[in-house]
Structures
1.
Amino acid sequence: MAPSHWIDDGRPEVAFLGRSNVGKSSLINSLLMRKGLARTSNTPGRTQSINYFLINDSFYFVDLPGYGYAKVSKSMRADWGKMAEQYLSKPDGLVLCIQLIDSRHNPTEQDLQLNEWLIANGKPSLVAATKADKLSRNQLTKQLKVTAELLGSRDVLPYSSETGLGRDKLWAEIQKAVYPSS
């Protein structure tokens, strides 16, 4: 999707980023309490373009293609990376980047690179650890600590699309970013 096809109507945008199969579409559906709005699949790399979801006629959720394990050609994967970087580099509208990391695993090299890029480029961002329901409370606590340390002591918000864990906290962060004067 070329930049000329991006929506640019002045509304704030909240971008969701993460590797293929981290649960971006499931998280978006969970936040909006809608099944099937964002397409989910058992096949990593299903999202192949930038998808916009208009929320309450006032801001957008933006689902970017995942990086990593997608079963596509290297050239297509490289094109997705360029598209995502172009999108993230745009000067206006982007009020929050939500980087998703699978809570069951340490951040990948690509996760660390994205995190560093967001920080180095001054992008407002937070990290959400998806699939938090797949770990015991003790395992989750330990893994969140390890993830935070690997990401340079950033706060990591646990999230479960299945149970709703972290939903209210994530919405609060989104609200602060979209409506900063409220």
2.
Amino acid sequence: MNHPVIVVISVGEMGAAVGGRLREKGAEVRTSLKGRSQGSAERAMRHGLMAVDDDAALIGGAEFVLSIVPPAEAVPLAKRLAPAISGTSKKPLYVDCNAVSPATVNETAAVIHASGAGFVDAGIIGGPPQPNSAGPKFYASGGETKRFLRLRDYGLDVREIEGEIGVASALKMAYGSLTKGVTAIGIATMLSASRAGVADVLKREFADSQPQLTALLARSVPRSVPKAYRWVAEMEEISAFIGNADAGGTLFLGVARLYELIARSHEGDGRDIDVLKRFLKS
């Protein structure tokens, strides 16, 4: 059996774990550490990924390129790799797996199509692959999704959905608007109640009348803190996806600013993070 060569960029928690899953199933997995942190290098090594920083060598012979980067990096990565893709005779399938709006993913697709490669729009729902688990779902749309389905044989839960490029990203935007939006509302509620001096009373009332919501926030808020810096751009993409201010487009610009505040607190004095911890403490 000829195993595919797969490029996975970047090696954040999701990208590294996805690359590791593909490698465990027999694929050769390459990545680039150009401009990345020591933490990225350590994750690449831990998951057995091959670091290749020359883009031509990185792309040469690859069957798939999986773009798993923060939203603001999706188009720049495509523009960076396009010359290398143009210069290779064997064109890989470029799979954009980022939390971006349909407009942004179509901009990326135009760059990649101009290089001669095929393109799939994919939205990841779920956390990084873990041992003995199926891992996240890769919802995929566009005319070339059948090629992407091959990676089911290499441990990815790829789910084809009807529609053109942009449909999978729309699903991701809609899903994230609710899950991350609810978490943001919870954070805003906790911070404002604590400032007003009613946090303890509110906690007791939540426990009494909203136990399921209390349990959800107890899980989601702590998980959101180290990821808040990445969610800023995602909320801006969701705002662009919703578009119409009357339908809530501006709401998610506010959510973006809230996650920006949490990211600053996480990296700085930690005061707001401490408030959230106290609220969630049993």
